[in-house]
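[retry 2/3] AA2DB protein: previous attempt timed out, resubmitting with same input.
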Amino acid sequence: GMIGAVWAAAALVALPPLFKARPRAGECALSDDTWYVLASCAASFFAPCLIMVTVYCRIYQVTARRHAAVLAARGSLRPRPLHPTCPTEPGNGAREPAGPGKRPSMVASGRRRRSQHQSVSLCRQRLVRARERRFTVVLAVVMGAFVLCWFPFFFTYSLGAVCGDGCRVSKPLFNFFFWIGYCNSSLNPLIYTVFNRDFRAAFRRLLAGPARPGT
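[retry 2/3] AA2DB protein: success.
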């Protein structure tokens, strides 16, 4: 449903210029009709950009709220176990050696197990929060690159349609803005590679080629 709606919107933006008579045969130029320029700019950039910024702000608010809740829960746990790394299994090595005339305390053992279980739970929550923060940063960088690359083109394109020749930029500069927008598509793989270890590992495997038998 959503994918079909996106394709339908793209078709509505792209098809109208095909039915317009071309002033020069063999040349596909951008339409300069005011109604089409404003409608296409709104549907192609300004409306999606507004939606993305709104959704990102919502994601950031939810992530910040969850992070604050984890910090509050962590601060309420007393005593706080000191573990440099996350233990993998609670209760591992929790028993004390019973010497002559000594019996292991079941109460102390239960407390140790609860403390280790809380430590494991907090470590897992910290890992999840760190993953969410990385996702938020990557999403912000992707959105920022999209806006920076496409805003100059859509702004000058719509401004020229509204104001006429008095507001149009030079053709070389307009072409530069046009191609900077398309260069945005090549930035996303670089952004994901820089900020995501899984992508980096996958690219290394692709560049290294298939693994040889016995290696």
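[retry 2/3] AA2DB protein: The domain at 31-90+109-208 is CATH 1.20.1070.10 (Rhopdopsin 7-helix transmembrane proteins).
[retry 2/3] clearing retry counter.
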